[in-house]
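Single Protein Entry

Contents — chain, fold
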Amino acid sequence: MFTNVPLDETIGICADSLYHGSLAKLSFPEHIFLELMNLTTKSVEFSFNGSMYRQIDGVAMGSPLGPILANIFVGFQEQLLFEQWPKPMCYFRYVDAIFAICSSSTEAEGLLRHLNSLHTSLNFTIEKFCEACIVDTGAGYYRHPLRCDVFVHCAQSGDNRTVMATLKECPVGLYWSQNDLTCRPHYEVDCPQDPCKQPGRIAYREIFSCAAYYKCLNGSRAMTRSCCDDKFRFDEISQKCVPDEICRSNCHSNSSRFFDSDFQVPLCTMRAVENDDSFYLQEVHGYFYRMPCPSGTVFSTKACSCIRGKRKKTVMKEVCEPFIYLPFDTDWNDHSTHPKGVGAKSLEIISVEGAVGGSAAYFDGTSSATVWALNNMHFGSNFTISFRFRSATRDSGQFALVDNSDCEKSATFGVALDQTKRASFLYGGFILEDNSVSRLNTTLKHNQWHDVKLIKSGSRVELWVDGHVTTKLGHADIKRLDCSMTIGKGTNLDPFVGFIDDLRFYKCTPFKHLHGKMA
């Protein structure tokens, strides 16, 4: 973009705004301003392959004035655009990169045509993230055009007819690799759009936080992120923390994140008790202990401590809602607050005794259901999945119930049924980032419905079956995998034959499940 900026025209725009517009006028004459601008932007010389060249128009790459003049030129054209064309429902621009949400493809294409018609130096294009990334499994990926640590996950939406694009962020220290379709250490990924490669860049803001930022060291991003103090935000222009009453520092969510002083921020290991703020739950090695607050104090989740206040009974609002909810009452669609796409193969919803809503999904050995939204999701150590099932066969085998192995890779979470003529066992667990395995199992009775919960909350892993729990510790996060959640089939497992009902997946631990863990 910089080399396409018409210098004379842009300098004229600056002069008109400063000397003939509403802006405060400079203390020296206009002709001096024009002479200074010409002196600092024109007659730029550079060498290439041993020869000297002079740039005759456009802003030189690497010039400190480049981003400023490009922004002024595009901003002036943008102002003309919206005097003639309605502004989209959502519109943001950073120099020559525009993010817009339009009501239809017709509106988007009309906006593009009108924008490019304003000036011969403008040649914007549309990147429709999901056009080229949908694959046979119903999900796909696309690199983010401006960031290395962010990627676009494309999946079918709840109506299974449209495609939904979701921005996802790699864990701290990793960049998205389009070749491998996963997040890799930043030094293993060639990312031309890395902000740290820009001249003069010393830091840049994390995309999902107002307070978090990454430092640039010798043209590369630091492995750990830094964080502004509370009520400060990171300003991209000044590249430093500036006061902001609205910004609340929420970027210390795991132990690999630090302040500038390299002081490690401790995690809050306390949780509120439902309906009673005079107590709190203290986590110790994965177990939660009910503890009283001192007299005259109440527990505050914001302060992560007991603070002075009057004790009272409070009704805790459940903030942990299902990310995926498949009741299987009338269909196999997701009925969560924000429905995601679900694909089904040879799946029937039939009436059956014992089902929560009177009906359940029947898997006949060729059936399966796939939830694409969990593809390549970073679960961390907050994971809860619950469902009910009943086997309809006495055949021996290891049958897949729920896991994330739709891409023929080994699942990193899952629940499976191991059945013989004489006994049945249920297995559940995780593969963690340190490649350790947290696997649990319990015995089952034949010919009945079973209620199952697989939970990872912090360092504690639990498998609940029919009200009974087995536990173990797993300190690392759940390993990330570029595969979707699959129900009824899995890699190296037999397809399930039987009923599955009322499946819920949470990216947190609901109170009703947490309470069962108190010691």
Q: What stands out?
A: Residues 66-84 form the longest helix (19 residues). Residues 37 and 472 are 68 Å apart (CA to CA). The chain has four domains: 2-116, 139-243, 270-308, 324-517.
